[in-house]
Design brief:
Layout (H helix, E strand, L loop, with lengths): L4 E6 L2 E6 L10 H15 L6 E6 L4 E3 L4 H6 L5 H17 L4 E5 L2 E3 L1 H8 L2 E5 L3 E3 L11 H7 L4 H10 L2 E3 H6 L5 E3 L4 H13 L3 H17 L1 H18 L1 H14 L2
Parallel strand pairs: 2-3, 3-5, 4-6, 5-7, 6-8, 7-10
Antiparallel strand pairs: 1-2, 8-9
């Protein structure tokens, strides 16, 4: 297992932790593979009844994709690079056991989307959530698709076009956050929910989750293809690279 992901199992509940705290748990290719592989391993483990997905530290659940990898992506690499990230979403949905997102800090872009496709979301009162890709020169396509399963068209447009981050209270009012808790209670509450879900009749649970998976995946391929084409055009124009370079330069001066 990669060092980008850490797994702990206690009382039949696994904590799958994105383990790049210094990078705000950003999704690198290594982390993406680690999360997907970890979910498969835990789903097949008879000693695990449920999974809590969270981030290392208290600043971020996941701040999005790794900026260095994004900056260096070439248009010809986009399908593979983007596919590696999107495989996390596919695997969360494919996991038969409960997957509860314990959002302990910023959940932006790919991190926000991981939370959206999880079975439930427990969110720290200090967290920020949203879809800021457009401000980094990246079309908000996959994220707007996942949001469409949770919120209405008008609010989806606003969040996708502005790229602003919601505070936890707004996410709760919109129904994106199922539970709003103090920072230290995020993982305990997520564990409690995973344990409760694990007691449900197995066939009823499996078929209920399978139906949500079927609905979610119905538009996935179209969103993926549109995301690939949009990002190829954006990267060919150099827009994401320019924004990222400016951000990295400003950060290095601090």
């Amino acid at each position: 297992m990669t060092d980008s992901v850490a797994i702990e199992i206690d009382d039949r509940i696994a904590i799958l932790k994105l383990n790049r705290e210094k990078n705000l748990n950003a999704v690198s290719a290594d982390l993406a593979r680690g999360v997907a592989d970890g979910l498969i391993k835990l789903d097949d483990d008879d000693g695990v009844d449920g999974i809590v997905l969270t981030g290392a530290g208290d600043r971020a659940f996941c701040a999005g994709v790794d900026l260095i990898e994004a900056r260096d992506a070439k248009p010809a690499d986009i399908e593979s690079w983007f596919g590696n990230v999107c495989n996390i979403y596919r695997q969360i949905l494919a996991t038969r056991k409960p997957v509860i997102a314990a959002v302990n800090g910023v959940a932006a872009g790919a991190g926000f989307q991981m939370a959206l496709v999880s079975d439930l979301r427990v969110v720290s009162k200090t967290a920020k959530l949203g879809q800021p890709e457009i401000n980094a020169g990246i079309p908000s396509v996959m994220g707007s698709y996942w949001m469409s399963l949770h919120i209405g068209w008008s609010k989806n447009q606003e969040l996708s076009f502005t790229g602003r981050l919601m505070d936890a209270e707004e996410a709760y009012r919109l129904g994106i956050a199922n539970h709003l808790v103090e920072p230290g209670e995020v993982i305990p509450k997520a564990r409690e929910i995973a344990q409760d879900f694990a007691t449900k009749p197995k066939v009823a649970w499996a078929r209920t989750k399978a139906r949500f998976r079927e609905v979610a995946m119905r538009g996935f391929d179209d969103a993926f293809r549109a995301g690939v084409l949009g990002q190829q055009e954006a990267f060919a124009a150099g827009e994401p690279q320019a924004v990222i370079e400016k951000f990295l330069a400003s950060r290095s001066k601090k």
